[in-house]
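Sample entry (624 residues):
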Amino acid sequence: MLIPLFGLLILSFAVWGIGDIFRTQGHNQSVATVGDMVIDQQTYAQELSQEIATVSRRFGTQLTPEQAQIFGIPQQVLNRLVSRALLDEMASRMGLIMTEEQMRTEILENPAFQDATGRFDRNRFIQALQFSNMSEAGFLQILGRDTSRQQLTQAVTEGAVAPQSLTRQLFAYREERRVADYVVLENGDASALGQPDDAAIQETYESASASLMTPEFKTVTLVHLRVADAAAEIAISEEDLLAEFEARREELSKPERREVTQAVLSDEAAAQALAEVIAGGADFAAAAEEATGRAPVALGLVAKAELPAALSDAVFALESGATSAPIQSAFGWHVAQVGAVEPGEEADLETLRDQLERELADNQAIDVVIEQANRYDEAIAGGLPIEEAAGNLGIPSRRIAAIDLQGRDAEGNVVEGLPALDQFIEVLRTTAEGDTSLLTETLDGDYFVIRVDALIAPALRPLEEVREDVVRLWQARELGRISQERAEALVQRLEAGEDFAALAEAEGLSLQRTEPITRFENNPQRTPAPALSQQLFDIDPGDVTLAATPGSQIIAKLEQVLGADQDGQQERLDQLSDQLEASIKDDIFQQFLGSLQQELDVTVNQRLVEQTLTGGPSYAGQNH
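Predicted structure, serialized as tokens:
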């Protein structure tokens, strides 16, 4: 549970995030300056990389730099860093500080460091620091900065409240409910229609021409520098293989792991007394809880390197089931017990030979491809056509006669052997006819450049090719038209005063009643169609409305207008009030940040911002 607990800590302390991210003036790679504070390129690159990784996980695919730009991620990250710096600079000028007593209170009352009874648990605090590789002094420094930001934020927004009248009006609008009787007219079966004549087919073909077009294709010349191709040409010597194996022997070996449980006490005497009680046969967990007032902490299976240096030697000298003598560390006195022992396993060169040869070849190939890319970039910068520059360097080029923005050819087949598809398609999309793209690095280390030699404009597919599609489209339209005409006739009869139940029975339709629904209802268990939910709020009780859906027509008559559901109403009203208050506070705070930006002289090096995203020359070391 350590990771979630520390996550709670981060969330509770950081309005804008934590970390020592700002430098003093003088750094020669500043992305932005805010007053006397500097946001350096390394900080921006790290935060940008983390944000792109987060969004990529959300979408289930790695975003390209171009896609990140489209989503506005670089600017969002920069805005966040600038906002933090604005708050820190203003807090510094105002002399906002956090006293030791305030820090102590924050730590003791933070849920991340409390046990099941709500009391401060020093073990949890220590483990959180160890997990994040943070010293206690470093943590307190971060805590002080984040608290100063919070103090400033709260001072600006504290008095903001949501007016009760506004809250109630919005609540009444959102929570009003309506009940309607309705019938559904299905569009029917296409088999009853028969086949359209030639005139109907021609008319449908012409009217639906926009949906029957071929995509736009481009004819391109592609030069693709592949790491895999370079790796296939590299032979790894036995000497290099042995050197790599020896350098990574420890990493490639499976370390011994031990199941460790520990209790942490404040003084040696108490730790010694606990060790003696356990040596006398007492249960470790029970004795530790009696001695400390809390259950011991189970660290799980850990390797020696994962333990603090003060503990590792002593713990790994114990037999399975043994308990240590008191061990001193910077965090107190430890008594540890070893449970199961998972033996280690030495790395074997012959078993790992193929893997190491592939990895060494790939690593060397990356350098080869980077060197090729630099020479190739110089060649095309001199004005040579991309295929001629490639030929001079022994790099193959390729002509693709037709490719669309899904990576398919004129027959609809996927074009094989392309660079990373997402990045390639984006470059293809943004490169105009006659233009040559920039040399682009892919996420897997390849490089490519394209020239768009011609555009093949979209064209209407021949009728013979799409005749079956046109027939299906005509049938769908005819069924919809017939259903709509019947529905409109029934609506007229209802508006003329006929009884809905009698009409439904006479027409062989099932009369149903909706649940009380709001104007935003889209649950199919409660409403036959989201569009109907909205339409019911545009009519008066007794009125009739007609909603078209794919495959049917819905006739509905509004029967009741109801207020908000009384069950849990006050709780929902309070929630809405909190949402409005948060929105108002956010508006105020954004205005405050805007005024700080005017006052504190914010400057941004936009060239360096763009260079960081694209991995330009001055920051290339961050990418390789």
